[in-house]
Amino acid sequence: MSFPQEVKVGVLGATGTVGQRFIVLLSGHPFFRIHALGASSRSAGQAYGKVTKWKQSVPVPKGVRDMIVQECKSEAFKECAIIFSGLDAEVAGDIELEFRAAELAVFSNAKNHRRDPVVPLIVPLVNPSHLSIIPHQRSLQSPALSKGFIVTNANCSTTGLVVPLAALEQAFGPLDLVVVSTLQAISGAGYPGVPSLDIMDNIVPYIGGEEEKMEWETSKILGGLTDDGQGFDLHEKSPLRVSATCTRVPVIEGHTESVSVRFARRPPPSVGQAREALEKYISEAQQLQCPSAPEQAIYVHDEPDRPQPRLDRDFQKGAGVNVGRLRECKVLDLKFVVLVNNVNLGAATSSIMNAEIAVAKKVVEV
Questions:
Q1: Cα end-to-end span (Å), the chain
Q2: Residue 63: DSSP 8-state
Q3: Radius of gyration of the chain (CA)
Q4: Which DSSP string do the residues of 108-136 spell out, in sequence order?
Q5: Catalytic site residue 72?
Q6: Which of 13, 105, 133, 183 could staple 249 via S-S, CB 3.0–4.6 A?
Q7: DSSP state at residue 311
Q8: CB under 8 Å to 298, separation ≥6 — which residues?
Q9: Residue 322 neighbours by CB under 8 Å, 6+ apart
């Protein structure tokens, strides 16, 4: 697959933790070029290096340090072909709508538009086919748009879950029940995040809204489009029930999930058959040779004590999913452990990969 030599992009919420991760990943990208940075009015008009509280493990990229931060208004980003939004949900909704109305392609990490009936909720290793609804999304705007649209990526914990589920459904047909318990890293709460007195020597057995996100988003992602191509079927042809319990644990990065599944078809696959399906799963992002795609969408560990956040979260630059402890479930059919890098594939990497796919499929005009 041939990609363009240069595509100008903007980053909204550039001073936040997700925005910073966008900048780190984009600074070394083969064809996306950071052209504009957006943040609050407090930061606008100043050099990025002076206004950001940098929390990444590498220095602020040289090409970005002296860039002047803009307010998050579309006029300052009109030369960009793609906008990456790392905005906080409190402000993301209206700003992203304004950028779409200005004929800009918005790839958002925020939750605001995930439930919109014509906005695709895309995990790049699972459902890029949902990009086909974008012409309909454009047609519904007033006036109708020719270039602008919004694509969202999923909640970080949902992202890790749906990749192995998609592989299993592709090989063995629909699932009808998923039970998942998460151990989610503190970085998922943003910065400054969870107070130290709440998380040190502790597990917090509740994350507001997280369980509902996992239970709903999974069906939108794993389902298809309606027959008329103008909506999402939410897996309704074979209803999927998801029960999620979400907890916060004292880990910096990497969400771990304990998953049990039941298949609609009987008899269910064996452990060996399921392992083979997970290992052979190939996503469209890989087929299109997207530069941010992992070599393996799902890496299956042999060791009984893997995956672990500290050891495995950065494997494949955090762009794939790690699976381990695949075994028979005495209550359902199969159970296994998933690890996803919540700040890479669970956030910025997904948005970037979604944009790469959109460029490859000519959904974005460059």
A1: 15
A2: H
A3: 20
A4: E-SSTTTT-TTS-B--TTT-GGGGGGHHH
A5: no
A6: 183
A7: H
A8: 163, 164, 167, 278, 279, 281, 320, 321, 322, 323
A9: 298, 299, 301, 306, 307, 312, 315, 338, 339, 340
What's the burial of 250, exposed, middle or buried (CB within 10 Å: 0-12/13-18/19+)?
Answer: middle
130 annotated active-site: no
Decide if 336 contacts 302 (C-beta within 8 A): no
Could you say which of 113, 130, 235, 255 is catalytic? 255
What are the tens digits of pLDDT across the range 184-223? 999 999 888 899 999 999 999 999 999 999 999 999 999 9
Structure confidence at residue 191 (pLDDT): 87
- DSSP code, position 79: T
CA dihedral 5, 10, 16, 17 (to 10 degrees): -20
Query: How does DSSP classify residue 204?
Result: B
**Model confidence band, residue 365 (pLDDT cutoffs 50, 70, 90):** confident
- Compute the distance between CA of residue 240 and CA of residue 224 in angstroms, rounded to an integer: 13
Which of 80, 113, 130, 156 is catalytic? The answer is: 156
Say yes or no to pLDDT of 149 above 90.
yes
Per-chain mean pLDDT for the chain: 97
- In angstroms, the CA 289 to CA 282 distance is 11
Q: Quick one: which of 365, 363, 364, 366 has its CA closest to 132?
A: 363
The residues near 346 (Cβ < 8 Å, ≥ 6 apart) are 155, 156, 157, 159, 160, 188, 255, 340
